[in-house]
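Project outcomes to date are best conveyed with an example. Our students and postdoctoral researchers have been running inverse folding experiments weekly, and each run begins with a structure described purely in C-alpha cells. The record below, which covers 207 residues, was selected by the lab manager from last quarter's runs and is presented without edits.
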C-alpha cells in the first residue's frame, strides 16, 4: 500500500466517524463541531484529488462562515434535547427497516461500479488552473442549479436570523432612539445644600 493511499484511508475513516457522530451525539453543539471535523477531512480528500480550490473553499466558506453561523444559532436557541428523544425507542422498529431499505435502494441505483477503486487523477501541467475550469463549467452548464442553491442558502440565512430574534422577558434590551433623545434634565439633578461649618458637622455627627 502506497503512502498516498494510506493517507486517503486515514482521512476517509475520520470523515465517516465524524459524520456518524453528527447524527448520534446528544449535544447539538458537539454535533456541529463533529461536522466541522468532517469538513476538514473532506477538504484533505479533495487535496489528494488535486482539487485545491474546492478544498480551500470548503475550509474558508463552510467552516469559517456557515458552520460558525450554525453554531451561533444552536447556542442561541438553547434547544432542550430531552423531549426530542423521548419517542426514539418507540419509533426505532419502524425507522430501522426503512433506513435499511433506503440504503439498499441507493446501492441498486448507483451500482457497484462506483464503489470500485477509482484511478488516480491525470497529472496536469504547472499552468493548469482548476479554478478556471470549475468556473467555466459552473456558470455555463450548471448556472440554473447554482442560482437555485444560492436562493436556498439565502432563505436559510434569513430563517436562522429570524429564529435568533426571540424576545425574552428576562433579557434587557437597549433602545437607541430613546438614548439619542435623552436630555440632561432627565439624567442629571442639581441639588442645592446650605454650607455647613466644620464644627456644626462634628456636632451633628456626635448627636
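After processing, the design step wrote out the following sequence:
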Amino acid at each position: 500500500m502506497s503512502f498516498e493511499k494510506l493517507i486517503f484511508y486515514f482521512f476517509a475513516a475520520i470523515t465517516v466517524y465524524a459524520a456518524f457522530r453528527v447524527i448520534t451525539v446528544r449535544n447539538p453543539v458537539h454535533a456541529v463541531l463533529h461536522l466541522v471535523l468532517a469538513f476538514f477531512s473532506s477538504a484533505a480528500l479533495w487535496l489528494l484529488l488535486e482539487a485545491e480550490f474546492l478544498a480551500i473553499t470548503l475550509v474558508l466558506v463552510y467552516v469559517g462562515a456557515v458552520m460558525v453561523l450554525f453554531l451561533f444559532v444552536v447556542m442561541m436557541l438553547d434547544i432542550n434535547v430531552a423531549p426530542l428523544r423521548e419517542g426514539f425507542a418507540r419509533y426505532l422498529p419502524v425507522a430501522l427497516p426503512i433506513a435499511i431499505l433506503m440504503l439498499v435502494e441507493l446501492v441498486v441505483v448507483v451500482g457497484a461500479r462506483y464503489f470500485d477503486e477509482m484511478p488516480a487523477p491525470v497529472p496536469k501541467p504547472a499552468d493548469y488552473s482548476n479554478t478556471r475550469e470549475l468556473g467555466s463549467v459552473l456558470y455555463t452548464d450548471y448556472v440554473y442549479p447554482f442560482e437555485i442553491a444560492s436562493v436556498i442558502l439565502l432563505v436559510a440565512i434569513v430563517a436562522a436570523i429570524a429564529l435568533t430574534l426571540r424576545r425574552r422577558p428576562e433579557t434587557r434590551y437597549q433602545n437607541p432612539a430613546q438614548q439619542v433623545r435623552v436630555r440632561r434634565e432627565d439624567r442629571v439633578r442639581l441639588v442645592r445644600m446650605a454650607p455647613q461649618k466644620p464644627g456644626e458637622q462634628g456636632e451633628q455627627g456626635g448627636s
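Residues 26 and 64 are 24 Å apart (CA to CA). Residues 52-77 form the longest helix (26 residues). The training component of this project remains on track.
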